[in-house]
Amino acid sequence: MATTMQPPKSEMIRLANKPPWYTSLFVQLLVAIVAGILVGWLQPKVGADLKPLADGFIKLIKMLIAPIIFCTVVLGIAHVGDLKSVGRIGVKALIYFEAVTTFALLFGLVVGNIVKPGAGFHVDAATLASGADAIAKKTQNKELPHTVDFLLNIIPESIFKAFTENNLLQVLFFAVLFGLALAKFGEKGPPVILEIVDHLSHVFFTVIGWVMRLAPLGAFGAMAYIIGQYGIGSLSSFAKLIGACYLAAVLFILVLGVVARVFAGVNLWKFVVYIKDELFLALGTASTEVVLPRIMAKLTNAGCSRTTTGLVVPTGYSFNLDGATLYLSICVLFLAQALGVNLSLGEQITAVLVLMLTSKGMAGVPGSSFLALSATVAAIGHGAIPVAAVALLLGADRIMDSMRVSVNLLGNCVATFVVANWEGQLDKDRLRKVLDGQDVPPLEEPDPIGDAAAGGPSKSAT
């Protein structure tokens, strides 16, 4: 008599211990985002009033980002204890950021020239007189910092001010110095301070674990607000621009996939599946900051060294905004085409050069995309394109957030893998097992981010 093949005992135990499908953060976020779209569409006023749910969740995450970055970077550098290694990682990361963001700008221009998203608008420049006031309101009358000011601002006036203002670059700068100092003292024996930082990191990631339980609520509020405030109709009004931007995003992600495979041996599709929860949360809340702690945790769990992850990811949040730069270059052409202006090759190159500078100071500035575009339009010096024309994008800008955050997030993850591989700090065997969903051994050094955010240090997150 034939016998039925039974699965291995280990597999039966794994299936028995698998939590119910409805407890998956991915499923909860998916339901929350769909529900938010429906509420915003069917009850726009109710949807617009749900913004505090998203704002509250984002504030809870931001409350913990600075101390988590500090602890992660300090622990990573203190264990490496090599100033030259830290310097090499920083220089390689900045070179990579500049190369990829410049490519993103040029790629956006190519897409904009082919698709021509502004063709057919036939906007009269004389009707844009009130545009300057609208842009001033959107940007709160602020300006992008000049290059020198931006670089000087990396040095904090006060350690405490860097933390209270949640200035990630300043926190990172101080953390690097603090970690190197601890590494030097470590030559005479592990300092008590390092143990304190280690324990603090566990505490902060425990709190993050609690806060993340509210993620579906935050995503629901954010999506309901976007649809309720701007309406489904705004999608049709700017359909060609939105289509061009999302097409460019998909094609650029394919390019990132090639970069990840060639320069780090990473299958980007498997990695996307691995971080699907974080990606959906970023898309739902239109913010990459809310997933920064978990992304750093998963990159570390997937084989990137703690030092590389701690240096590259936070720096990339200011210097490697691939999605934002892609969007900006397309929008420059959109404005010109909407006004019936044919930008010459020289004017388009000027736009790229200006955006290479302005896009680096965008992080943390309200309405930064409008400020960068305004500066670019002014620099081109084409009289037929008034700066007030940037106001044409007010109706579509918020809808582009999902495109920008997805490309920004994946761009920074790929950058971390590439730099880690260049430095010989990428455990490819661990990476393969994690992306294949296999169990992996505990990290050689105790990892404070493993337990709370990556599904445990001894197993890959699912």
UniProtKB/TrEMBL annotation:
List GO molecular-function terms, semicolon-separated: fumarate transmembrane transporter activity; malate:proton symporter activity; succinate transmembrane transporter activity
Q: Does the keyword Membrane apply?
A: yes
For the region Disordered, what residue ranges are annotated? 438-462
**Where, by residue number, does the polypeptide cross the bilayer?**
20-42, 63-81, 93-115, 203-226, 238-264, 326-358, 370-393
Q: Which domain of life is it from?
A: Bacteria
Please name the GO terms of the biological process aspect recorded for this protein, alphabetically.
L-aspartate transmembrane transport
Q: Where in the cell is it found?
A: Cell membrane
Q: Name one GO cellular component term.
A: plasma membrane
Keywords in UniProt for this one? Cell membrane, Membrane, Symport, Transmembrane, Transmembrane helix, Transport
- One Pfam family matching this protein: SDF
Signal peptide positions (record):
none
Topology in membrane: Multi-pass membrane protein
This protein is called C4-dicarboxylate transporter DctA
Origin organism is Mycolicibacterium mucogenicum DSM 44124
